[in-house]
Amino acid sequence: xxxxxxxxPMAQGPVPTENQPGHHPPVEQDKPTGPPPTPGSRTRxxxxxxxxxxxxxxxxxxxxxxxxxxxxxxxxxxxxxxTWRMEVDRDNITEVTATGPYLPWKVIGxxxxxxxxxxxxxxxNRKRGVCMQLAEPLPGIEPTGRIxxxxxxxxxxxxxxxxxxxxx
Length: 168
Known about the structure:
five-stranded mixed β-sheet, four-stranded antiparallel β-sheet, single chain
């Protein structure tokens, strides 16, 4: 029959620092990092369609196929474009349309600000994209958040599928 360890906790040695009361690891493994997913929702990713003409200017702005994506779930649309990020509540989207073609010099490289309506364009091609009109303009092009955009355009590889998903 096996023997039980001593009842004295110090008989096993000192308690490691990371196990002492009050210690918290850098990441709480058992804690959720966001709200629970909406039933029946899953995240859908839309890659950007990179035109060869746009690759070098995009790379100069820090944008590559590995860090440019639009993610859509039940509540949010998240745009990652190099170091630029935007999060749009789906409830804030009032209209979604396929758009294009675009003049290359108006959209090539980093995100572009429309002087006509202050919309922001994340473009990697000149052919087609998706424009999301917003009820409440959001910041995106510069880090202070002073400039707010009433529309967001993205040139994803599957624009019709993104329009269909966001129109539901």
